[in-house]
Amino acid sequence: MSEGEGNFEVILADLDKTIAILADGTAPLDQLVAAHQRASRLLAEAEARLDELRSRADETAILLSQ
User: Fold this and answer.
1) What is the block-wise mean pLDDT of the chain (66 residues), using blocks of 10 residues?
2) Number of domains in the chain
């Protein structure tokens, strides 16, 4: 696994944990708000990293097809 893929996996794991906190719903309101904000940031990071990985995969596919 490359470093970038590892970072993506870490982001997804953090997002999963944060969503679990939100889904449980038993944390105090301030913690739920913070978890929601964190989930939003992690989702944006995951989407950006996924776009970057897709771009690299597309570039590799083009190079391999030449």
Assistant:
1) 69 95 94 96 94 94 94
2) 1
What is the span of the domain harbouring residue 43?
A: 3-65
How far apart are alpha carbons 12 and 8 in whole angstroms? 6
- Helices marked H in the chain — which ranges? 3-24, 29-65
Q: How far apart are CA 50 and CA 15, in angstroms?
A: 14
Q: Measured in Å, how far apart are the chain's first and last C-alpha atoms? A: 25
Residues in the chain: 66
Note the pLDDT of residue 58: 95
Whether residue 39 contacts residue 15, with contact meaning beta carbons closer than 8 Å, is answered with: yes
